[in-house]
Amino acid sequence: MERESLGMDVVFVGAGPANLSGALHLSRLIAQHNEAVAKGEREASSLGEVQIGVIEKGASVGAHILSGAVMDPKGLAELVPDFVEQGAPLESPVLEDHFLYLTRRRAIRSPITPPPLKNHGYYIVSLNRLTVWLGEKCEAAGVNIFPEFPGAEVLYDGDDRVIGVRTGDKGVDKEGKQKTNFEPGIDLLAKITVLGEGVRGSLTKKLIRRLGLDEGCEPQVYSLGVKELWELPDDRYPAGRVTHTLGFPSDPWTYGGGWIYGMQNRILNLGYVTGLDYRDPLIDPHAEFQRFKTHPFVSKLLTGARMIRYGAKAIAAGGWHAMPRMYADGVLIVGDSAGFLNAARLKGIHSAIKSGMLAAETIFESLVTEDYSAAKLQSYETRVRDSWITPELRRYRNFHAGFRHGRWLGMANAGLQYLTGGRAWGIIDRDQQEPGNEAMRKLSAYGYNGDGASQRYQDLRFDNQLTFNKVTDVYHAAVAHDEDQPAHLHVLDTNICATRCAEEYGNPCQRFCPAAVYEMVDAGTPTSGVPGRQLQINFSNCVHCKTCDIMDPYQIINWVTPEGGGGPDYKGM
Ligand SMILES: Cc1cc2nc3c(=O)[nH]c(=O)nc-3n(C[C@H](O)[C@H](O)[C@H](O)COP(=O)(O)OP(=O)(O)OC[C@H]3O[C@@H](n4cnc5c(N)ncnc54)[C@H](O)[C@@H]3O)c2cc1C
Predict the structure, then answer these.
(1) Residues 6 or more apart from 542 whose CB is under 8 A from it?
(2) Cα-to-centroid distance, 463 and ligand 1 (Å)
(3) What is the distance between the terminal CA atoms of the chain, rounded to a whole angstrom?
(4) Using an 8 Å Cβ cutoff, are 212 and 298 in contact?
């Protein structure tokens, strides 16, 4: 097939805060340089017009951005020092911090807020809105942004140097045939490609494997955040109040916690995080969140209120020890794709912004010296190590791993680490680190009989007022995919589903997916007379959270980008 090639200088894959910050900072560095050269203040050649492109799989910038979010403004203040005056969309400064331990019936307020969860001086934001704002700044600075353009493949030369990215084809039907509106993807050729795809990037995953960038690292571990926005009937929960919870509904062996943030216009933002290294195969992170809302403290807040938005997304929680090498010939990795998130603080926006800026400084130097080799780009890691990111991440480097030993040892470890700058205190045994999906035990280990979720969630009902099933929730994520396209969730061996997986884990994809994408359905009655089951993939429900790619126990689900523009629309999230 003939493809168009487009030559650019720098291509950023993903229009998240990391890449948009990188693109904006880079365009300014180039403009300042050219101006200084023109004035004779710098002895170097002008870089002329540098083509900077950002491609985004969502229908618009921000459409696929989902976060909490309480933002530490440190990163944004470096990128746009007068961000308040410039009208950055901030919901509210944080005015109150609450930390609660929830038992089934009671909410016990801790007299002290754990230091990582102190948010004084920070802002509650809709990251979707903030990203749109950053996108506008980029465009004003001359950066070309292409929404509806998923990066489908990294392009390499014969020596495994990254030379750009191929965007996804458009107009392919579900049988894989070209429709009348078929448009082949474009080869965007670039001197440097920056992967800022967020958590579990589909291109980043392949790049890391191909080039062995995770050699010597701990396996990355993840959590899943499930979130709703509610419209309150009165001022019962003011903008600027932040509540974090621990305890109910998670069991002591499952990492989890809730958040409740007050936004403007009586919007309540609440969600629940479940560690994607849980053991019980019947755990369903969406159900955990629904149960969270049934706690008297939470349900009282929601009485008479209306749910208006829904979303879910994975979080890279492995921290410092799980960060891969972030550079290779012609490529850099930024933000959540490289694991910059601080799981103890549930914060990654500030470090995503900073990592984008450090990548921009590295790229600028490469453009000046015309050297795009790994040896040159290595200075990105040096910049990261010399920045405030490193002490912050090192201080919490053993945070998530401590919770492998249950909630109480995890918390003890977190407290000790805080005091000692991140030491593990023997609670962590590095040899036992495993990818989260390997932590899942079989149904038999729990004595479950089949995959009936009611065995774990006996008291959970979906009443459509306080609690919602996945399909209703997905409707509130405004998800849209053209259904006449190949499924973008590739299950490499579906024979396992009805046999081994059904028996061993009870098809956990039906539960860990927060969007009802995976369903085991009746396959009709074969001649044997025994009714069979088969996997049905409702890919049009997919909210791009990446949980299936992460959590499948056999690692046979491969998430790839669907046709450009498909997916959720996280307006205001
Ligand atoms: C539930 C939840 C709660 C959180 N709470 C907080 C919080 O309170 N405070 C905080 O600081 N942080 C929080 N975080 C973390 C924070 O949101 C992330 O650290 C931050 O968004 C990372 O930015 P990023 O640019 O690396 O990636 P993202 O924000 O994920 O952006 C990546 C972008 O790349 C696009 N993309 C991905 N793959 C491709 C591709 N192949 N081609 C084209 N485009 C692609 C995506 O559509 C997306 O627009 C939270 C995260 C979650 C999920």
Answers:
(1) 479, 481, 488, 489, 515, 517, 562, 567
(2) 31
(3) 40
(4) no
Give 332's strand partners: 194, 327
Three-class secondary structure of residue 443 per DSSP = helix
Instruction: Give pLDDT tens digits for 181-195.
Output: 999 999 999 999 999
Q: Token pair 């950053």 is at which residue?
A: 134
523 vs 348, more confident: 348
Distance CA 274, CA 297 (A): 19
- Which atom of ligand 1 is nearest the CA belonging to 335? 26
For residues 136 and 145, what is the distance between their CA atoms, to the nearest angstrom? 10
In angstroms, rounded to a whole number, what is the distance separating the alpha carbons of residues 407 and 254? Answer: 7
CA of 545 to the centre of ligand 1 (A): 10
Q: Give the CA distances from residue 557 to residues 49, 117, 338, 383, 490, in Å, rounded to whole numbers and listed in that order.
A: 42, 35, 21, 35, 6
Calculate the alpha carbon distances from 110 to 98, 99, 114, 236 in Å: 8, 6, 9, 21
Q: What is the CA radius of gyration of the chain?
A: 23
State how far the Cα of 317 lies from the Cα of 256, in Å rounded to an integer. Answer: 12
Q: Whose CA is nearest to atom 35 of ligand 1?
A: 14
* CB distance 249 to 284 below 8 Å: no
Per-residue pLDDT of 345-392, as tens digits, reads 999 999 999 999 999 999 999 999 999 999 999 999 999 999 999 999
Residues 6 or more apart in contact with residue 17 via CB below 8 angstroms: 65, 127, 130, 131, 134, 335, 349, 352, 353, 356
Give ligand 1 pocket residues (Cβ under 6 A): 13-19, 55-58, 64-71, 127, 150-151, 196-199, 201-203, 225, 227, 271, 313, 315, 335-337, 341, 346-350, 352, 561
Mean confidence (pLDDT) of the chain:
95
* All residues at 6 or more sequence positions from 438 whose CB lies less than 8 Å from its CB, including other chains: 553
The answer for residues whose C-beta is within 8 angstroms of residue 389's C-beta and 6 or more apart is 340, 351, 354, 355
In single-letter form, the type of residue at position 33 comes to: H
Q: Please tell me the predicted confidence (pLDDT) of residue 258.
A: 98
Strands (E), 525-566: 533-537, 557-559
Residue 352's CB is within 10 A of a number of other CB atoms, namely 29
The protein residue with its alpha carbon nearest to ligand 1, atom 41, reads 151
What pTM does this model have?
0.97
Which H helix or E strand runs over 140?
Answer: helix 127-140
DSSP per residue, 144-159: EEETT--EEEEEE-TT
